[in-house]
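Case 877 in the screening queue. Each case pairs one protein sequence with one candidate compound; here the compound is zinc ion. For every case the pipeline is the same: read the inputs, emit a complex structure as tokens, and attach any notable structural observations.

Predict complex for case 877.
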Amino acid sequence: GQIIHLEDYRPTDFVLERVDLTFELDPKETKVEARLIFHRREGVDSAAPLVLDGDELTMTGLLLDQEELATTLYDVAEDTLTIRGLPETAPFEITITTLLSPETNTQLMGLYRTNGVYSTQCEAEGFRRITYFPDRPDVLAVYTVNIIADKASSPLLLSNGNYLGGADMGDGRHFAAWFDPHPKPSYLFALVAGDLGVVEDTFTTMSGRDVALKIYVEHGKEPRASYAMDALKRSMKWDEEAFGREYDLDIFMIVAVSDFNMGAMENKGLNIFNDKYVLADPETATDADYANIEAIIAHEYFHNWTGNRITCRDWFQLCLKEGLTVYRDHEFSADMRSRAVKRIAEVRHLKSEQFPEDAGPLAHPVRPTKYREINNFYTTTVYEKGSEVTRMIATILGRDLFKKGMDLYFDRHDGQAVTIEDFVACFEAASGRDLRQFALWYHQAGTPLVTASGAYDATKQTFTLSLEQTVPPTPGQSAKEAMHIPLKMGLLLEDGSEAALAAVSGADMTDDVLHLTERNQTVVFSGIPSRPVPSFNRSFSAPINLHIEQNADDLALIAHHESDLFARWQALNAIALGNLVEATANVRAGKPVTSDKALIDGLIRAAADNSLEPAFRSQALALPSESDIAREIGTNNDPDAIHAARQQILTAVAAAGRDTFLKLSDELVSSGGFSPDAASAGRRALRNSALTYLVQADEGPERAAKAFAAANNMTDLSHALALLAHRFPDSAEATDALATFRKRFADNALVIDKWFAVQATIPGAGTLDRIKALMNEPLFNGNNPNRVRSLVGTYAFANPTGFNRADGEGYRFLARQILDIDPRNPQLAARILTSMRSWRSLEDKRAGHARKALKEIAGASKLSADVGDIVERMLKA
Ligand code: B3K
Ligand code: ZN
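Case 877 output:
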């Protein structure tokens, strides 16, 4: 594929007015008739042809105003249909007939059929696999959809918008017609047909309209959709209260399908979900599953305004809808759950996924300026960093002006396809603030590094902060400009109280937000009565790396006294990370590992502190992951040394905290029925954290096996299974538990995915053989994206020692898998390949093996654009 550049954007020559689609569904030969009404845009050359996109289409008919088009007037090329000789000003109708084979569409883009269900996925460029079309997000039209299908196998016929009517056709087939009054781009088109069960409810909007809510799932799974329905109703209510956004059709539908390339899709009025993010009950879903379902149901629903009503002008603007909608779903979850705990989880995720992307060969700006394959830009940078950028606008403007800017955005751009510049302009207009420097967050890739040092002058009672910011070079961007970094901070005094920040010079400050805008800035705080301990980046107000010389005592002061709970966790985490990095160096140097007293005291004190919510205490107890440590070290990484160091620190904490952990594991035994609410989930999480440390110190598997036998919900059961399998992989207890689990859940693929994932994350070089054996297991299915992700994906993304084997076999295995998956499902292959994005930060031998494996992929004879693009960027020097 060729490279597409932002600067080349121009509107289409023809305006699409209406779309009328008729589908005659058949597994092998579906017939699609598309009637498209266009007119030439004013000012466009009368000789300009109409160029439509297409991908793997078979066209059997082409009419202009109902008359067959002469073959001299059109050309069919590999991805385009070009039509010439079209009217100068009058509207005209093009009718295109195409034939599709949904059953053999293994890419899962366009119209496909799996498990007897027809469904579609059109974002980003899937609609062109259904018919020739101006398949780009700035072409908005009103759609009518007629669906004809066999009545027995497809009693259910769904599309976007409101139901118009349907009828029996007398020949074993029936039809249904749908009309969506809201102009939309083709990527939001959806069609579903099949035989599914339904859960129904209603929602009354703030203006008093009744909306029918329907969630479609496989027959028999209806009871497992009730939590999703509850989350949907809460999302609808929250969007009215928090953003003033009301739903705009008579019906809102969600369909759960089991073969899906991603989490879910926000098609207008007809969201399609990976069933993993719909189905839940206590026996089969973990607390993390419940939280994900709540967040993703909300995310897709929120797209109805941020994405659908206001959409993107082009795919470079993807963060316009994704970053903003992630921000909205984060705020929703924070309101539904504990704000501080939610923020900790977000930051952990951001640092473990987005920071490595931003520091490696795949780094790109939140608003990229070029791409080869747009599907490769649905990244954590566009989504999560995009969300952080929106959050910073809210931090800089404050709540009221942020809201004013959002209202203006909805008001000004409803029904349009717009850009990041349009979005930012709304906040400038609402606040009167110049956000030009701030907008660099959209354009400069790389995680900024802020270095801080402080000096206290007791006689003058001043505290002087010297701050420096640098943004590292990233592919295609060597020199960077200084950014506007909103840094929330406080100065803590020895007794834990907070100094008033009344007199400040050298920087703008609004409340506790310090605005860092220069490369170097010296900020003086006056009236500070004693040497303060600065606490920076409260609630992670800016997505940056921060370096400050702070000893463990100062960090401990923050960990115990900060008013911002997130900052407490952050301080504990910083103590832990320092200790783990040092321990890793000691392991590599053959020296003994020592654990920091401040770390052990801090962790145990937080664990035992009943005044803190259990979910927070559980987060405090979770040490930085092995990849967090690798990222902190940055270069020349040895995953085995990191693992060994971390294990030794875990053991030291376990020994020192034994009494506390025993007490917690007794006290927090759940009694009564299961509730998925955040407080109950928090208690389970704290108990399981305590159990993790106890098992860490255990010589044998008895305690973990007992926990497995006693578990009465999936959260506890899968946790105990992981403890057994990871800590005692060769024990009879682990083997038994894995066999029991498999037998009990063999008919529930989503639970079996957990069984694959637990085994894929067993540390150590031996796991690769296990993975290979599991791929021959009858419950594995290489065509189902969830199965492939849970086994192959989890191994590559989440098993540092298993995957990064010193002999390079892990990379070779992955390369072969990628080449095997790519012809069937390029998006899936490309996504899993990004697991190697940090290969350059490995020590030389491993990096050499990784390069070889990447070169093997790059040298393959037939690569998809998806995999080709990733591997090429990954190898570029
Ligand atoms: N917008 C979809 C993602 C589509 C991915 C296409 N490769 C889901 C979401 O972000 O809500
Ligand atoms: Zn989204």
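Case 877 observations:
- The pocket of (3S)-3,7-diaminoheptanoic acid (ligand 1) is lined by residues 123-124, 262, 264-266, 299-300, 303, 322, 375, 378 (CB under 6 Å).
- The mean pLDDT is 98.
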